[in-house]
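Title: Request for sanity check on Precorrin-3 methyltransferase prediction

Description:
We are preparing a figure and want to confirm that the structure record we downloaded matches what your pipeline produces today. Could someone re-run it with the sequence below and paste the raw structure tokens into this thread? We only need the token string, no images.
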Amino acid sequence: MSGWVQIVGIGPGDDALVTPQVQAAVAEATDAVGYIPYVERVAQNPNLTLHASDNRVEIDRSRHALEMASQGKRVVVVSSGDPGVFAMAAAVFEAVEHGDPTWRDLDVRVLPGITAMLAASAACGAPLGHDFCAINLSDNLKPWDLIDKRLRLAAEADFAMAFYNPRSKSRPEGFEKALKTLKESCGDNRPMIFARNVSRADQTIKIVPLQETTPDMADMRTVVLLGSSQTRIIERNGAPMVYTPRSVDG
Ligand SMILES: C[S@@+](CC[C@H](N)C(=O)[O-])C[C@H]1O[C@@H](n2cnc3c(N)ncnc32)[C@H](O)[C@@H]1O
């Protein structure tokens, strides 16, 4: 049988949110490549050889997957959420573009998954119900000035926003700077949603008015959503429902 690479998204955590298409790819695969905790989640297939690696070696991991597929292996590259959202799919294509020319002829596919912002949005209502954007707040792969510019322009355009990688131990100051920019640029008290460990047993959802937010409310297990100026909160017994209306008056 000839080799292939399928870059699969295993969703935000709940096994019920792994698509049947991804389950089928994992069942057929000979090898699984990815960040250690994600590869461990697909470890239930006894025929699968696991190649777990650290989070910072995405291009090496991609080359390894492509080399194995060239040798006839059926390789799944595992990402959390969706593989096309701040994850392995772009890294594999970068390796294809700059790597061995024969890799361009390999069977390489991306199998989508449920990304953290959509699982978080569903957990509290529909805050991304109108136009929105997603921004990775890590400045490991881009300069902070560009992040700051995008935050200001997204606020000016009145997008709802989703923030991935908000705050890590090695970058504790970034989210503080992001909040300062957002408080100034938005100027109001729209809701910010801190969704931690979404779809897992220890999921928490906190809805906080923007001007009352503090940097310690987020960590690397949190995806943060910010409403637009139109976003509404429905108070009720139990958790409130947050939504952004489908229309904006012209
Ligand atoms: C490198 S990005 C990967 C995103 C992933 N490809 C996706 O589509 O969800 C990692 C970031 O995703 C977010 N994230 C992933 N899974 C999450 C979950 N279950 N709950 C909350 N945030 C999550 C966090 O912001 C985390 O820092």
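Thanks, this matches our download. DSSP finds seven helices and 13 strands in the chain.
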